[in-house]
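Posting this for the archive.
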Amino acid sequence: MFFLVFSLLCILKDTVAIDSLKVAFQWKQIDYDFPSPEAKWDATNKRQYIPENNLPLGLEVYGDRIFITLPRWKEGVAASLTYIKMTDNPVSPLLRPYPDWETHNQDVEIPGIVSAFRIRADSCGRLWVIDSGYKNMLDQTIAKKVTPRLLIFDLTTDKLIRTYEIPKDQWHTEESFFANIAVDEKNCDDSFTYLADLGHPALVVYDYKQNKSWMIQHHYFNIDPLAGKMNVSGISFQWEDGLFGLALSEKDSEGYSTLYFHPMTSFNEFKVSTKILTNEELVKNSTAIFGEFKLLGSRGPKAQSGVSFLHKKTGVLFYALINLNAVACWRTSLKNYTMESQGRVFMSNELMVFPNDIKVDANDTIWVLSDKLPIFMYKHLNYREYNFRILKSSVKEAITGTTCDSTFKIDHHIMKNITLANKSKLNITGNNTNRGSRTNTGFFSRSESVLLSLVILILISIR
């Protein structure tokens, strides 16, 4: 019997998730599709293009184009909003400026785009862009070129439809930084956009039809001081990023969605109905709406999360685990948001160092961009190796064998035994290895859970 238990444990040790995401594109260093070699030389000579200062951060997929943002962290970002095509070479494709080079000219008084952060394409063929308005954010020469604003492009004509500057009373000069965006379409004319301010934690709601916005504040937008310690690739740092992850569900019978949200410096997930958020008069009474915001639960230790995205067809919420170099998921039809109810989609200390954006396109393909941001910020990237990647998989393949698969059934009794009574008996510990065990955060695959269950049953039978 001992040898049977030992054999099962050995199998369990080597059992990992399917990890179906594959590298679609990768770069050692970013280069652009300049109009000519002379134009590239001129941009380099004028320090308008400094290769090592360009880092991709946000992505979106629409049609045959993959849009990529490159915030102006430092001097020398040639274009802050770019795109590649699905048919491009998967190794180091040149980035094309969107919509054109002139829009990214920083020598004019009001540039078309200063520093694009994250973006969102909607079903109406529009691209929504958050422009922070700041450049050289990691240098001593930080400067605000324009007021933080929302830019909306027509993806059919690639023309700018609208520019909306966020009113001064809805952001703070020294603290505010708009890091994420979610778009809620009732129809193409009646749309709302949610902008997450991580620095002075708040949610700005923009009404496209009325061309106006309002700000909402809530305790749940603030950081958890116990979650401030981060460690990525051996680099320890402390961040104080408030409201960050935003993801919208399918609409209910009344035509409203659920907004799932979390601060980055936190282990918890929350939700609120857009019925509350889109009522400008109601949200003015913060006391009246306070209880409408709900705590779902915790992701567990080391599970600080950046961006999130909800695949409406399956109801699966995907989210980046920045401290674990992983992407995880939770099926929103489940009653409980616990460590045991969450699944791991992908984990790698090589291919996914700091997953920084997640999107699911119209073809049910999940896309993840990883960019080694902490190394870029606090050390130096090694440009002899690949630093930036875009990975992809079908949603179906990504969630197969995880708790996010609708065919997966959780045995809560067995999971309780695993996480509590039998943890010391089995002496199972987690670690953050290349493909990794899920036991350190509670993210089990179906095969891992089954094997653990068998071990528990055997141990019980030989007592």
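The chain is about 15% helix and 35% strand. Confidence is low (pLDDT under 50) at residues 1-17, 413-442, 444-463.
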